Tyr recombinase domain-containing protein (Halohasta litchfieldiae), 201 residues
Amino acid sequence: MVRIDDSDPVVKCWLSPDELDYLERTAGAAGWEQEIAMQLMGRCGLRVSEVSYPSTEELRWSKDGDIWLFEVRGKNTKGGGPKTRDAWMPETVADDIHKYTRERKLSESDLWVDVSTPSIRRWVKEATQAIADETGNKRWKSVSSHDLRRSWATYHLVERQVDVRTMMAIGGWSDYSAIEPYLAEPTERRIGEAMLSSSLH
């Protein structure tokens, strides 16, 4: 079930990897471009305003890291103009991107998601509303585009325990204070593992 925190004026939600799969499939039913947008936010950690930046020109295989990286130009959390960074892309998403660009006959410079930021936010709302209607789980109605990035960050920081400096680099956070809020919400599975481990000692 979608985890939710409504103690502040802005409701925060966290999706599990399976819930992200569900969201991607639901969005994809309305068009492959929508599914790609969900993956860029939920699997690669892009801000909604960054989704319409990358094209295949920005995607590269790093032999040093043995990973896919792609250039993103987005928010500078220290202020000032946009900041360029290399974001990480899981191989499963890279495979989808390659299939998508081949099938759509996109050139190297064609944007993967060529729509406005408000359109992407609307896609998220339409998909989450459809899931809420289908499942009867009203929590889905509270999920926003930023919650996809929140879910990505929390999963890697808390569940997979990726070091903070790596996450700051690939997620585009300029200082610790900007990423610190994502450290605070372990999932129920992580809580159970941590507490079970501590009770055995």
Summary: The helical segments are 17-28, 32-42, 91-103, 117-135, 145-159, 164-171, 176-179, 188-199. The chain is about 45% helix and 10% strand.
